[in-house]
């Protein structure tokens, strides 16, 4: 009886293995197809509603945030030139407050969904060099959660108006990022605490 069952068990395992390979292949093909398409942004952003403080919930690894261990925020304000002033803040592992100021330039007015950000010194920031893409890929109607990325799909952020975002909403935005061709296996979940954030701002 045992001898007769061995071929059948082996056949079943083979089917499972083949099925797994096919599913993996389909998954890779789907990601490759998504990555081959141009990255799309939201139709339009109302800049005045987008301004203010955003809390980082998750991001893909990037060299210019290596020192950020927790409590990452981005604050946007409109300046006299009609551009958006940027203030990025975070805490390093030893508790040091790190911050950098920049300026974002709208690239597709009046739709306002594609910007370029410069962190050069203010006196030379007007030069159209060393600017990074900041594309708004998904945002809710109330401007409470946003997915930000760039056309090469190397960088990505999920931002929220509050330091805590429920898992269902986060997964919704991450799944959408995947549908756009983003690889989120290396995603970093940002550690946030509203109490400590307020203490660092004092």
Automatic annotation (TrEMBL):
The keyword Lipoprotein applies. Residues 45-192 form the Lipocalin/cytosolic fatty-acid binding domain. InterPro entries: Calycin (IPR012674), Lipocalin_ApoD (IPR022271), Lipocalin_bac (IPR002446), Lipocalin_Blc-like_dom (IPR047202), Lipocalin_CS (IPR022272), Lipocln_cytosolic_FA-bd_dom (IPR000566). It comes from the Bacteria. It is found in: Cell outer membrane. Keywords: Cell outer membrane, Lipid-binding, Lipoprotein, Membrane, Transmembrane, Transmembrane helix. The keyword Lipoprotein applies. GO terms for cellular component: cell outer membrane. GO terms for molecular function: lipid binding. Its main location: membrane. One of its GO terms (biological process) is response to stress. The chain crosses the membrane at residues 12-34. Pfam families: Lipocalin_2 (PF08212). Involved in the storage or transport of lipids necessary for membrane maintenance under stressful conditions. Displays a binding preference for lysophospholipids. Homodimer. Belongs to the calycin superfamily. Lipocalin family. This is Outer membrane lipoprotein Blc. It comes from Acinetobacter chinensis. The lineage of its organism: Bacteria, Pseudomonadati, Pseudomonadota, Gammaproteobacteria, Moraxellales.
């Amino acid at each position: 009886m045992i001898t007769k069952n061995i071929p059948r068990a082996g056949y079943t395992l083979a089917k499972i293995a083949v099925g797994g390979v096919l599913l993996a292949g389909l998954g890779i093909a789907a990601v490759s197809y998504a990555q081959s398409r141009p990255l799309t942004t939201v139709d339009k952003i109302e800049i005045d509603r987008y301004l203010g403080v955003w809390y980082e919930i998750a991001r893909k690894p990037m060299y210019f945030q290596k020192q950020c261990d927790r409590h990452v925020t981005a604050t946007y304000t409109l300046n006299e030139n009609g551009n958006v002033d940027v203030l990025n803040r975070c805490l390093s592992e030893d508790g040091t407050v790190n911050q950098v100021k920049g300026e974002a330039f709208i690239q597709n007015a009046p739709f306002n969904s594609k910007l370029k950000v410069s962190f050069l010194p203010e006196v030379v920031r007007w030069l159209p060099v060393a600017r990074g893409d900041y594309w708004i890929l998904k945002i809710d109607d109330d401007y409470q959660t946003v997915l930000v990325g760039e056309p090469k799909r190397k960088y990505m952020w999920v931002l929220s108006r509050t330091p805590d975002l429920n898992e269902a909403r986060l997964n919704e935005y991450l799944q959408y990022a995947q549908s756009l061709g983003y690889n989120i296996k290396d995603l970093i979940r940002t550690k946030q605490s509203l109490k400590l954030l307020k203490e660092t701002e004092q």
